């Protein structure tokens, strides 16, 4: 069973701000299921100038009741790879679960692109793929569960991003104001 | 945000602070330097030890090349 979902939306912020917020999105009040986040790799591609980051996330494993007999262990580990192309104004994040893969493999791709028509807008595309081969007549349940979870997760991650964006902008405004004040003093 | 192990959290926070500052003040402004390498190295030493203890090292190195592989044939669209 392979299932693809896709959703598009946009943020009313510049790509610089959105990419910054994305990389700093944890913790936030809408992501309490994310327990820890670690950076495993951080490098700049010498040829392309792209920034590449690999992260390991630990999340609480909130599985539906019918799946609890199949899934053992409490936490789920997720690997994330982010590529930031500053010149193109594009950030691509890809994630994959590395635990509980016998039940399902969930991959997510998020693309954040500067809107070519409006520099204060950032276009966001979410793609999710769910592959499950567990059988036992559970595939349709997994499918339905993952569909509702997909919508729920996107809504939560959007709220989290908006929260962090608001903070980032306030900080930015604060810094700008500080600079103006400093200039006035000089 | 906490690290996977409490013992690495202080180093992680130090690295995160460095990275965030570097990202907004240098990378986004076009700089190609990679700051934070010293603190990142210290943080990684701690992290590698913990990942090994938790038996995650192999799981991670096996999974890394495969991340996003289901989207590989769709990537062409993004570059346009």
TrEMBL record, chain A:
PRELI/MSF1 domain location is 2-173
InterPro entries named among the record's database cross-references: PRELI/MSF1_dom, Slowmo/Ups
Per the UniProt record, one Pfam family is: PRELI
Gene Ontology CC terms: mitochondrial intermembrane space
Quote the protein name from its UniProt record.
PRELI/MSF1 domain-containing protein
User: What species is this protein from?
Assistant: Coemansia spiralis
UniProtKB/TrEMBL annotation, chain B:
In Gene Ontology terms, what is one molecular function of this protein? phosphatidic acid transfer activity
Could you confirm whether the keyword Lipid biosynthesis appears in this record? no
Record-linked Pfam families: UPF0203
Write out the entry's keywords from A to Z. Answer: Disulfide bond
Q: Name one GO biological process term.
A: phospholipid translocation
Family the UniProt entry places it in = Belongs to the TRIAP1/MDM35 family.
This protein's GO cellular component annotations are: cytosol; mitochondrial intermembrane space; nucleus
Q: Which InterPro entries match?
A: MDM35_apoptosis (IPR007918)
> How far does the signal peptide extend, from start to end residue?
none
Please report the name of this protein according to its UniProt entry: Mitochondrial distribution and morphology protein 35
Give the species this sequence originates from: Coemansia spiralis
The cross-references to PANTHER family, in alphabetical order and at most eight, read:
TP53-REGULATED INHIBITOR OF APOPTOSIS 1
């Amino acid at each position: 069973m392979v299932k693809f979902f896709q959703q598009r939306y946009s943020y009313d912020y510049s790509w610089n701000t959105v990419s910054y917020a994305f990389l700093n999105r944890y913790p936030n009040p809408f992501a309490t299921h994310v327990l820890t986040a670690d950076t495993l790799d951080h490098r700049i591609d010498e040829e392309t100038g792209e920034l590449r980051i690999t992260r390991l996330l630990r999340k609480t494993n909130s599985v539906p009741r019918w799946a609890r007999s199949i899934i053992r262990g409490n936490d789920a580990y997720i690997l994330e790879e982010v590529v930031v192309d500053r010149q193109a104004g594009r950030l691509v994040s890809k994630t994959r679960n590395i635990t509980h893969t016998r039940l399902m493999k969930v991959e997510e791709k998020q693309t954040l692109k500067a809107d070519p028509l409006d520099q204060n807008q950032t276009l966001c595309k979410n793609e999710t793929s769910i592959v499950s081969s567990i059988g036992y007549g559970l595939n349709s349940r997994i499918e339905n569960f993952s569909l509702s979870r997909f919508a729920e997760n996107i809504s939560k991650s959007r709220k989290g991003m908006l929260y962090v964006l608001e903070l980032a902008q306030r900080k930015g405004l604060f810094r700008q104001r500080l600079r103006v004040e400093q200039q006035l003093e000089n | 945000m906490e690290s996977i192990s409490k013992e690495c959290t202080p180093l992680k926070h130090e690295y995160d602070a460095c990275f965030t500052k570097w990202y907004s003040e240098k990378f986004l402004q076009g700089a190609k330097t990679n700051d934070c390498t010293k603190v990142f190295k210290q943080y990684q030493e701690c992290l590698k030890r913990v990942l090994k203890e938790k038996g995650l090292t192999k799981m991670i190195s096996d999974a890394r090349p495969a991340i996003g592989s289901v989207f590989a044939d769709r990537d062409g669209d993004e570059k346009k």
